[in-house]
Design a protein that fits this description.
The protein is an alpha+beta fold. It has eight helices and eleven strands. It folds into two domains: 102 residues, 2-Layer Sandwich (Ribosomal Protein S5, domain 2); 108 residues, Alpha-Beta Plaits (2-Layer Sandwich), CATH 3.30.70.890. A four-stranded antiparallel beta sheet has the order 1-2-6-7. A four-stranded antiparallel beta sheet has the order 9-10-8-11, covered by helices on one side. Helix 6 packs across helix 7. The longest helix has 16 residues.
Length: 255
């Protein structure tokens, strides 16, 4: 769910959104080194090290570091860029949590979340490392668990810019929030970014239309990932078998 409840004078949108963590994502391996440097290895496309959220997160902890060790971070990227699944944000949140221990920074989870929000509004939830309802610009978190589901993620072969979606003139910016327990009702699984994305990205609209004929279909964040959910794995796999062969899908469950 993603609702926009207003907009601040500085341009940031006020949100109410539910973050569901999954047992699937990128794989990160952290190794202490003796050379006191930060090394990052992985496939990040054209993203430079200086602009990588992993590197930025590591640098935030340098003033609190109580060891002479550096770190080498190997990343296996599974989350597509621009897919609305928090790939970069989860990498950053994980980096803060792990290096806080490796470097003996001794920062509390609350301290880490304050650092995390300077990297992005959805980084704090990955420091919290729990599914949660979020308000504010996405940084005010209330841990909350819904029923466990098996999710099918559908990945259109397109990257969507969050900035472009949030600047769309058709985007609703005055929605009413729901009670936190309302997230248990799938009628409230609405995403205000869905219509602007469907209007501007024909590939996503085509897949969304076809998937919706098979089952209720939703969009994650500002897209492009679409998802469906089922009460058991067999139903999820059955849906995947009905999908066109060219669709890239993966099955995962609530964490």
């Amino acid at each position: 769910m993603l609702r926009i409840t207003g907009q601040r004078n500085d341009g940031y949108h006020l949100l109410q959104t539910y973050f569901q963590l999954l047992n699937w994502g990128d794989i990160m391996l952290f190794e202490s080194t003796q050379n006191n440097t930060i090394e990052i290895h992985g496939e990040f496309g054209s993203l430079t090290t200086e602009h990588n959220l992993i590197y930025k997160a590591a640098k935030l902890l340098l003033p609190y570091k109580n060891t002479n060790h550096g770190v080498k971070i190997d990343v296996e990227k599974n989350i597509p860029q621009g897919s609305g699944l928090g790939g970069g944000s989860s990498n950053a949140g994980t980096t803060l949590r792990v290096l806080n221990r490796l470097w003996k920074c001794n920062l509390s989870n609350n301290d880490l979340q304050k650092l995390a929000v300077t990297l992005g509004a959805d980084v704090p939830v990955f420091v919290l490392n729990q599914s949660a309802m979020a308000t504010g610009v996405g940084e005010k978190l209330t841990p909350y668990c819904i029923e466990e589901f098996y999710f099918v993620l559908i990945f259109p072969k397109i990257s969507i810019s969050t900035i472009k979606v949030f600047s769309d003139s058709s985007l609703l910016r005055n929605q009413e929030p729901i009670d936190i327990n309302g997230i248990n009702n799938k009628k409230n699984w609405t995403n205000t970014c869905l219509q602007p994305v469907l209007s501007n990205y024909p590939m996503v609209k085509n897949i969304y239309t076809k998937a919706s004929k098979l089952t209720n279909t939703y969009m994650s964040g500002t897209g492009s990932t679409l998802f469906t959910c089922f009460n058991n794995q067999d139903k999820a796999l059955e849906f995947c078998q009905k999908c066109p062969a060219e669709w890239k899908t993966t099955v995962c469950r609530s964490k």
